[in-house]
User: Fold this.
Amino acid sequence: MSWFRETPESMRLLEEERAKLAEQEADWLAHAKPKLQRGECPYSGLRLHENGEGDPGSLSCDVCDCFGFSRDEVGA
Assistant:
């Protein structure tokens, strides 16, 4: 038995939360994509390079070394 009780109000709140998350994701992508296309880290703004701690073939900056972006995500 679930503690969650599905009511019209709870479903409305869930939909509002999903809409907020979708908007936040769209805002982030609008910020991140141009930076990645320029070969910049969307978090720090530093140049991405291959010599980081990410997976082989991934690119990262010196500050956000743990993230790593795939070559498919980075344009430059």
User: Anything to note?
Assistant: Helices lie at 8-37.
